[in-house]
Write a structure and sequence with these properties.
binds NADP nicotinamide-adenine-dinucleotide phosphate, eight-stranded parallel sheet, two-stranded antiparallel ribbon, alpha/beta, 14% strand
């Protein structure tokens, strides 16, 4: 078994503790139950799902079947775009809880900064936080302008901002603002969805530290203080992606990775969202 990932936690501005590695389950499809079960068996205590992934039910099932106490697993889900708005967000949250089979989530996120509706949606999340049905609330795909607009009127600051984050896409302005505001960063698509796992610099650093390219990319985010959400349905990779806390990248390896910025967006790009 890999290093105990469940012990590696960060404290959010809500006071809650979040394991720094979470299993992503976007596109895990029919393999979701098996993937979550394998992750929990190998020490993961954090799962990142969303309404739109269509597998909240399977995530809840795997957690229940694991026999691990609910209080020990950190569960995130997200408000989908079509459900944004105050009342509809509250209704969507109820439906997500029902599918998960839970009576609270650890983290509820606005999935995408839908113009005109995101501030109203945030008010709904603040209510869910007040009621403690969402123990922490946050946003996803919010870049600097979206964050500035939100914090100007928010009563509760987001606990996290989940964005695509890799050496090849560093979003420096947004990450600096999050650090300044005390908003934790969650890195999605931290393995570049496979697109840069064979990059020569990543391969060389991996050979130097005798780790896999995936572990190098994940460790880079971990050393910058971000939470990482690698997705895999392959047990061996699920284990590998959690083996991040028994090695270090030295300053020169970090500097080399820091130098790889190329604006690589592998999914949707919130920079296009007014
Ligand atoms: N908030 C958002 O808008 C947003 C957007 C995208 C993603 N996310 C979250 O972030 C999670 C991760 O992002 P992602 O799914 O886009 O991509 P990712 O984690 O960067 O990459 C996943 C891909 O890498 C493969 N892989 C996993 N571990 C590997 C390893 N050790 N070596 C080689 N290949 C490996 C997986 O294959 P196998 O599964 O076949 O092993 C899969 O094809 C998502 O599942 C989701 O929870 C959020």
């Amino acid at each position: 078994m890999s290093q105990d990932v469940s012990n590696t936690v960060l404290k959010l501005n809500s006071g809650a503790h979040i394991p720094q590695v979470g299993l992503g389950v976007w596109q895990s499809g029919g393999a979701t139950v098996r993937a979550v079960a394998a992750a929990l068996q190998h020490g993961y205590r954090h799962v990142d799902t969303a309404r739109v992934y269509g597998n909240e039910h399977q995530v809840g099932q795997a957690i229940r079947e694991s026999g691990i106490p609910r209080a020990e697993v950190f569960v995130t889900t997200k408000l989908w775009n079509q459900d944004q708005g105050y009342d509809s967000a509250l209704r969507a949250f109820d439906s997500s809880l029902k599918r998960l089979g839970l009576d609270y989530v650890n983290l509820y996120l606005i999935h995408w900064p839908v113009a005109e509706l995101r501030l109203e949606s945030w008010r709904a999340l603040e209510q869910l936080y007040k009621d403690q049905r969402a123990r922490s609330i946050g946003v996803s795909n919010f870049l600097t302008p979206h964050l500035k607009e939100l914090v100007a009127s928010a009563k509760v600051l987001p606990a996290v901002n989940q964005i695509e984050l890799t050496p090849f896409l560093q979003r420096s302005e947004t990450t600096a603002l999050c650090r300044e505001l005390g908003i934790a960063l969650e890195a999605y698509s931290p393995l570049t969805r496979g697109e840069r796992l064979a990059h020569p610099a990543v391969l060389e650093i991996a050979a130097l530290v005798q780790r896999s390219p995936a572990q190098v990319l994940l460790r880079w985010n971990v050393q910058h203080g971000a939470i990482v959400l690698p997705k895999s349905v392959t047990p061996a990779r699920i284990i590998e992606n959690a083996g991040l806390f028994d090695f270090e990248l030295d300053a020169s390896a970090m500097a080399r990775l820091d130098g790889l910025e190329e604006g690589l967006v592998t999914g949707w790009n919130p920079a296009d969202q007014p």
